[in-house]
């Protein structure tokens, strides 16, 4: 039925707009008809367990759900749901009479704008990733919370599909190494779940289980009019969508790492957290990344037909193993450290800290961001009391990140010995190495960076040259003991950052 109807719809006279050309894209659940200016998406009458489109009312309902849910993150992309009337052989779009099918009308965009396509061509930038982090953070912050009486998002509901993954993968495997790896992954998932179960339930109680997107990856994001647009959320399965926000960001982080973009994945997570402040859930990140990787591993196996030849089977197994190995990487015990920056405002500390994020997987904590997040209503953001409380908050968050198994870099001036000493004690208590990154640059460079930052008006810092001059006059030099635990970086010399990263890797080879 669907193929006959799709063929009959390829008639320009049926559409109330010019048709440049017809192109049909088929997925396992949809037919997508491209006309040039608009796209018409029709759901297949299929039942895969996790979705059921077998009845016409269901297809209508999920077309309407797709329209409504995707309008949360897009503007003027998802337009309307239209009935198809007439007959399969002679259909009418939005005509009179009883509907025989429904289509979702969308504005068409060039496929070459997909971020997955840009990535394949080497054109994906940090600006694209930062834009995605901002949009996803804002989306999560305003998305409705899943009520406590709804079982979705509880620890047990989270674990059910994880267990199902292992059950569904096992029959496809026969080689001993694959079976041993799968068994180890299942054991890690089970022990991780028992450890994380109280946190998962607390997250539901605290409102972090929300109506999310459910399918965020580079293939579901595109550039339209130069702006990143995230589309195609999960409309057909509430458990996939009503989940912890970390399940949403974990998917994109995993997708980036699968594409060999580990530095961008790290940047995305750290930027997202700076915007939301949701550091408390960090312990869940690797669990959700491993789950998402194994979903893709399972889907790869599902694509294997019974009559596939040896070459096809080998290719499918390679794809499976790539995802299984990625999932396994999330179970590794990391090498952690706690680093702080030291230097006056506008000296380039944030860029140094971001380099440690991208190169070494650290989470960046910024004093300017946390100061305004916690003390936004305070009369004097830079009073001694607020500054002391800000450093205390940074130390508290550093402990949260380290307990989640991730290294951390605190981006702050740390001009006072007492501030540095208090954070060093956090590292000592957590049993991780402590490093002071002593940042410096010529005054002319600092002045230039400060002017650039103020012109862009995108930095959380309020520093002026007067503030910087006061910092230079009042700063307390590093002690002899602190110098032994520090690395000096001229922030305007790119090679200094390369040396810093290489030095940390030499001392912590697990990074």
TrEMBL record:
<dbReference type="Pfam" id="PF13671">
    <property type="entry name" value="AAA_33"/>
</dbReference>
<dbReference type="InterPro" id="IPR027417">
    <property type="entry name" value="P-loop_NTPase"/>
</dbReference>
<protein>
    <recommendedName>
        <fullName>Aminoglycoside phosphotransferase domain-containing protein</fullName>
    </recommendedName>
</protein>
<dbReference type="InterPro" id="IPR002575">
    <property type="entry name" value="Aminoglycoside_PTrfase"/>
</dbReference>
<dbReference type="InterPro" id="IPR011009">
    <property type="entry name" value="Kinase-like_dom_sf"/>
</dbReference>
<dbReference type="Pfam" id="PF01636">
    <property type="entry name" value="APH"/>
</dbReference>
<feature type="domain" description="Aminoglycoside phosphotransferase">
    <location>
        <begin position="122"/>
        <end position="284"/>
    </location>
</feature>
<dbReference type="InterPro" id="IPR052732">
    <property type="entry name" value="Cell-binding_unc_protein"/>
</dbReference>
């Amino acid at each position: 039925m669907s193929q006959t109807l799709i063929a009959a719809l390829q008639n320009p006279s049926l559409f109330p707009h010019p048709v440049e050309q017809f192109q049909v894209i088929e997925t396992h659940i949809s037919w997508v008809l491209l006309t040039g200016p608009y796209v018409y998406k029709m759901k297949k009458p299929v039942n895969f367990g996790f979705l059921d489109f077998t009845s016409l009312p269901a297809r209508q309902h999920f077309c309407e759900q797709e329209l409504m849910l995707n309008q949360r993150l897009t503007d003027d992309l998802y337009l309307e749901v239209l009935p198809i009337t007439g007959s399969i052989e002679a259909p009418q779009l939005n005509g009179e009479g009883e509907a025989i099918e429904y289509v979702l009308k969308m504005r068409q965009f060039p496929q070459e704008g997909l971020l997955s396509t840009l990535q394949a061509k080497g054109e994906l930038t940090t600006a694209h990733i930062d834009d995605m982090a901002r949009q996803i953070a804002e989306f999560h912050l305003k998305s409705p919370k899943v009520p406590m009486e709804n079982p979705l998002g509880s620890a047990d509901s989270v674990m059910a599909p994880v267990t199902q993954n292992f059950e569904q993968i096992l029959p496809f495997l026969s080689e001993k190494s694959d079976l041993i790896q799968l068994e180890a992954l299942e054991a890690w998932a089970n022990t991780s779940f028992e450890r994380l179960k109280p946190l998962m339930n607390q997250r539901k109680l605290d409102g972090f289980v929300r109506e999310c997107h459910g399918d965020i990856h580079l293939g579901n994001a595109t550039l339209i009019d130069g702006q990143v647009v995230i589309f195609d959320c999960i409309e057909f399965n509430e458990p996939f969508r009503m989940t912890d926000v970390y399940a949403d960001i974990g998917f994109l982080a995993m997708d980036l790492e699968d594409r060999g973009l580990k530095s961008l994945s790290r940047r995305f997570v750290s930027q997202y957290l700076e915007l939301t402040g949701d550091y408390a859930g960090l312990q869940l990140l690797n669990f959700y990344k491993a789950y998402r990787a194994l979903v893709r591993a399972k889907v790869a196996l599902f694509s294997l037909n019974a009559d596939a030849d040896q070459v096809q089977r080998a290719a499918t197994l390679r794809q499976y193993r790539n995802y299984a190995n990625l999932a396994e990487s999330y179970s590794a015990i990391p090498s952690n450290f706690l680093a702080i920056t030291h230097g006056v405002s506008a000296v380039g500390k944030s860029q140094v800290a971001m380099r440690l994020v991208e190169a070494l997987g650290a989470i960046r904590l910024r004093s300017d961001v946390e100061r305004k997040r916690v003390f936004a209503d305070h009369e004097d953001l830079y009073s001694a009391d607020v500054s002391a409380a800000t450093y205390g908050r940074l130390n508290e968050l550093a402990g949260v990140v380290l307990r989640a198994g991730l290294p951390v870099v605190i981006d702050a001036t740390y001009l006072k010995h007492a501030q540095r000493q208090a954070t060093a004690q956090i590292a000592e208590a957590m049993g991780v190495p402590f490093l002071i990154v002593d940042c410096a640059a010529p005054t002319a460079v600092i002045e230039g960076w400060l002017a650039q930052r103020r012109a862009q008006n995108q930095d959380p810092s309020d520093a002026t040259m007067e503030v910087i001059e006061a910092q230079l006059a009042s700063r307390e030099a590093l002690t002899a003991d602190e110098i032994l635990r520090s690395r000096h970086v001229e922030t305007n010399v790119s090679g200094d950052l390369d040396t810093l990263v290489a030095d940390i890797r030499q001392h912590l080879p697990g990074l």
